[in-house]
Each structure stands twice: as C-alpha cells, then as structure tokens.
Amino acid sequence: MSITRPDGRTPSQLRPITMGQGVLSRADGSGQARAGETEVLAAVYGPTEVKIRDEKLDRATLEVKWKPIIGPPGIVETSYERFLRESLDSAVITSLHPRTLISITIQVINDDGSILSCAFNAALLALLDAGIPL
C-alpha cells in the first residue's frame, strides 16, 4: 500500500524547489524561494546608517522584518524573525561593516509548509545578490 500526501507526493518525494535572485528592482539585493506551493520573497537593504541606540561599534547590526500574507506580524512571526536574525547573524561577516545596519525583509507570498526553509534560502540569496560577504 502506497501512502500519498494531499499534494500527491509519496513520503520519499521532495517538494519541487525553485529559486531566483534580483527579482526586486528597488532593493540592494533580493531573492525568491519556492518549495511546492510555498513562496517567499526577501529584500536586503544596506549596509546603511543605523540608529545610535542600535549601533554596534565592532560590527553591523542585522535586522529581520517578517511580513505575513495578511495583517500585522504576530507571536509566531516574531519568533520567525528572531530565529532568522540569529541564524543569519552567524552567516554574515558583520565585522566588515561596523556601525551600519543590514535590513532583511521577508514577504510571505503563500504558505503551504516549509516556510522557514524558504525564508532562510530567500534571505541568503538576497544577501548574496546585495554583495554582503558571508
């Protein structure tokens, strides 16, 4: 007996994955990740000037903003922001841009599962597109 998921995949099949860079024209860098029906866009702005209260003398400040499909971000989205900020902070070489801000905005287009992996991949693609050293 073969078990299939609601989308027709078997337990050993992955969702079809597509990714791209440079999809947004006004951002310093942008990335798009899609896994099945889940789709996320990421935009990177910076390094730019940072507010004095957020300034770090020896490295850049990394900021992640999560924009859900509808409405304002809630508790779950705030935890996603924190997880991505902590994960990306270890990937970005922030010491090369002291006293600056690197802002990453994640826009959810559709959520059908695997949202965090799509967001992380889209953010990395956007950072690479912006020329931020990883």
Number of helices in the DSSP assignment: 2
CATH topology type: Ribosomal Protein S5, domain 2
Radius of gyration, whole Å: 16 Å
Corresponding CATH superfamily: GHMP Kinase, N-terminal domain
Biggest sheet overview: 5 strands, mixed
> What order do the SSEs take from the amino end to the carboxyl end, as H and E?
EEEEHEH
Question: In one word, what is the shape?
Answer: elongated
Helix content: 10-25%
Structural class of the helices, strands and pairings? Answer: alpha+beta
Task: Based on the model shown, name its key terms.
134 residues; alpha+beta; five-stranded mixed β-sheet; 31% strand
Describe it for me?
The chain has 134 residues and is of the alpha+beta class. The chain has helices spanning 75-91, 115-130, and strands at 17-21, 29-35, 38-49, 61-67, 100-110. α1 (75-91) links the parallel β4 (61-67) and β5. The longest helix is centred in the middle third of the chain and has 17 residues, at 75-91. The protein starts with 16 loop residues before the first strand and ends with a helix. Its main location: nucleus. Residues 13-133 form the Exoribonuclease phosphorolytic domain. It is found in: Nucleus.
